[in-house]
Amino acid sequence: MIASRGALRWPLYVATRLMGAALAMLGVVTLVFIVTHVLGDPARLILGPRATDEQLVQLRHQLGYDQPVLQQYWTYLGNLLHGDLGVSQYTQQPVRHEIWLRFPATIELAAAGLFLGLLWTLPLGIISALRPRGIVDRISQTIVEFGVAVPSFWLGILLIFLFYSVWHVAPSPVGELDISAIPPPRVTGMTVVDSLIAGQWETCWSALQHLALPAITLAITACPPILQLTRNSMIGVLRGDFVRSARAFGLPARTVRWYAFKNALLPITTMTAMTFGYLLGGTVLVELVFSWPGIGLYAIQSMQQFDYAPVLGVVILASLVYVLVYLFADLLAMMVDPRVREGTR
Amino acid sequence: MSTPLSPAGVEAVSRESRMAIGPVRRLRPFANVYWVVFGLFIFVAIFAPLIAPYDPVKADLSQRLLAPSWEHWMGTDENGFDVYSRVLYATRTDFSVSLVGVALATLIGVPLGAASGYLGGIAGGALSRLAEMVQSIPLFLFALMIFAALGNSKKVLVGVIAVVTAPVFLKLTRSVVLPIRSSDYVAAARCAGLRPMQIVYRHVLPNSLGPVASQLSISCAYAIQIVAGLSFLGLGVKIPEPEWGSMIQAGANDVLYGQWWVSVFPGIAVLLAVMAFGGIGRQLSRRYGD
Fold first, then answer.
1. Helices A253-282 and A201-222, packing angle to 10 deg
2. Which residues on adjacent β-strands are paired with residue A217?
3. Interface test with B, best of A39, A153, A332 (most B CBs within 10 A)
């Protein structure tokens, strides 16, 4: 009875979530349109304050900004659906192509940051939960407080100062590789992975060295919420009845902890996915500090060249990724937890 | 309430709630440190001209990149500006932009959230969805876009702060108002013939003041980080005006050559200010039993 009800409910749940994600994306895209086409005047910004009226009229005509707003909106949506993000005024290349070249670097950095982040937040969160308000818990709370408050770009600069200028252990903080290193042939676009595929060990080592500091910066500044959530959900689970029963049955403490962790894992997984989505769009400042050639740096450089199509392209891409990661996290939760699948939660 | 699985629960940890994470319990005296630091910043902001030893925007090219000393406590930057004086004056810029931005955000978010919660249904849900959409655009990219569309000025910066922090106030107020809507005393007020908006302002909104106060402080912490971050990108605050983020930017290259003081001191100021607001916010949220 219950199983059959569950079987009926989960497709509905998936459909609702998919619809929700699609609507959210349409909303974001519309918001971007309103800010750029209705509130702002892109022609004036591209040409600068000294532009004559004729130039403005001409450019507006060229870019299609003299058409009715709804017409523009329609064209804009159509272009987006075809994956057309416009053309960069600076390089005259399609924005989609330029983003395609740069996005892997951002993914690589975000993944490395998240990996390092999990490495310290998960164990510390679990240990904190075993003795709430114990010495480890207090120390980790202080670290969390620091990590959330410290500006990522400043921490990056501080790390550069210590590891590059003072101790000379890190390479100069420019890009993904040493100038002398031979870039690997492009397969995934992620330098570490590509150099492994090509078997270029020295290049790989250089890439890892360059990746270290920005990844550490992100691991410290973006991952404390994972620690906090791990701690809180572990504390919650450890108070549960099944843990008390397990203890009463005389199961070893290690086993009980493992059971508890498995039960606390779901919100942690969701949170980890969310953090990854946040990192994919949120590494702008760290990319700038380390001259990391990802989409964040691309957006900033385009902005400085008064080239707006790339900025919008990156905004739309990053929001799309965020919405998709969000959707993925929800679907994952559904697959892992039968209570979600059957709509009882 | 939301389970850890529901979108609302996940969202709560997504953006600026990153500051508000969890009930952190610690010794009482420690909580007061935040207020002391906050008080110091306010003091500095008001009396900056009296405390600062130098003019913050007067360049002295004969005094470039000097290390910290008795003459220049935090050294000088490459224009010969005194870093200490600029760090002090920057408190004014950072605090005023952040506070005004967050104040605007409450003025937008709280009434909309109250309306959203009180109306319920499709209209209420739509407002809440709109807030979520703003939140799903990565913040710094969203800000870049607004600056691209509206131009680079301090007014736009204040607007950006207001727009990106308003959604939290909207959703917070909505979550407070939604359960109150169906409570007995609201029903009584309705029977007494009060109009919906009267009910909201006299009876429903006052209940949300506690959580809003704690969120105010947390949002200020968040706003200072955004202001510093955007100025670091050269957005919002124009160069000679003292501001922590742009000061960090000014010293970013000097750090490579071992001249750390230009970037490090303004960064410490940001860190302390954000920690103070964050700490006060957590303290308030404990008090109002979140």
1. 100
2. none
3. A153
Q: Are A74 and B185 in contact (CB under 8 A)?
A: no
Q: Distance between CA B256 and CA B192 in Å, rounded?
A: 71
Beta strands in chain B (DSSP E): none
- A270-305 pLDDT, tens digit per residue, is 899 989 998 998 789 999 999 999 999 999 999 888
What pLDDT is attached to residue A303?
87
The residue among A115, A28, A24, A109 whose CA lies nearest residue A280 is A109
State phi, psi for A94 to the nearest 5 degrees.
-60, 135
pLDDT, tens only, A213-247: 999 999 999 999 999 999 999 999 999 898 999 98
- Within 13 A of A25's CA, how many CA atoms are on the CB side? 20
Q: Position of tokens 């209940």? A: B207
How far, in whole angstroms, is CA A314 from its chain's centroid?
Answer: 12
Centroid of chain to Cα A177? 22
Backbone φ and ψ of A208, nearest 5°: -65, -40
Phi, psi for B6 (deg, rounded to 5): -65, 155
Out of A41-55, B81-95, B99-113, least confident range = A41-55
- Least Cα separation, residue B290 to chain A (angstroms): 14
Cβ-defined contact of A322 to B141 (cutoff 8 Å) = no
Q: Which of residues 229-258 of B touch A (CB under 8 A)?
A: 229, 232-234, 245, 248, 251-252, 255-258
Amino acid at B111: P
Q: Which of residues 53-112 of B touch A (CB under 8 A)?
A: none
Q: Residues of A with CB below 8 A from B257's CB? A: 165
**What is the spatial distance between Cα A311 and Cα B141, in angstroms, rounded to a whole number?**
8
Say yes or no: A327 contacts chain B, CB-CB below 8 A.
no
Dihedral pair phi/psi, residue A167, rounded to 5°: -95, -10
Beta bridge partner(s), residue B82: B76
What residues pair up with A87 in beta bridges, in sequence order?
Answer: A94
The architecture CATH gives domain A98-343: Orthogonal Bundle (1.10)
Identity of the residue in B139, B232, B255 whose CB atom sits nearest the CB atom of A160 = B255
**Subunit contact B10:A270, Cβ cutoff 8 A:** yes
Q: How far apart are CA B115 and CA B105, in angstroms?
A: 15
**SS3 at position A273:** helix
Q: Is A282 on the interface with B (CB under 8 A)?
A: yes
**Look-up: residue for tokens 């003025």?**
B107
Is-contact A213 A159, C-beta < 8 A?
Answer: yes
Comparing CA positions, the residue from A337, A307, A256 lying closest to residue A63 is A307
Locate A280 and state its tokens.
């994919």
The residue in chain A having the minimum alpha-carbon distance to the alpha carbon of residue B218 is A149
> Is the pLDDT reported for residue B217 higher than 80?
yes
Interface predicted TM-score (ipTM): 0.89
| B contact residues 134-153, partner A, Cβ 8 Å cutoff | 134, 136-142, 144-151
Mark B60-99 as b/e (b = at least 16 C-beta within 10 Å): eeebebbebeeebebbbbebbbbbbbbbbbbbbbbbebbb
